[in-house]
Design a protein that fits this description.
The chain is mainly beta. The chain has a single domain, classed as Ribosomal Protein L24e, Chain: T, CATH 2.30.170. Helix content is 8%, strand content 12%. The chain is built from 1 helix and 2 strands. A hairpin with a 2-residue loop joins strand 1 and strand 2. It is globular, with a radius of gyration of 10 Å.
Length: 50
């Protein structure tokens, strides 16, 4: 499934996803809503940000 972070392009498997509030994310950065100021998930080719 697609990462729940809207601008993120990553596809993540439920078994390997970071789950938060019933949604699935590709990384802790996305799961936290990029609260620490990170501007991406660090996956190649994806430049998501909140």
């Amino acid at each position: 499934m697609k990462c729940a972070c809207e601008p993120c392009l990553c596809i993540v498997g439920i078994n390997s996803a970071v789950q938060k509030d019933g949604k699935y994310y590709c990384s802790e950065a996305c799961a936290s809503g990029h609260a620490d100021g990170s501007t991406g998930c660090a996956h190649s080719g994806c430049n998501c940000h909140s």
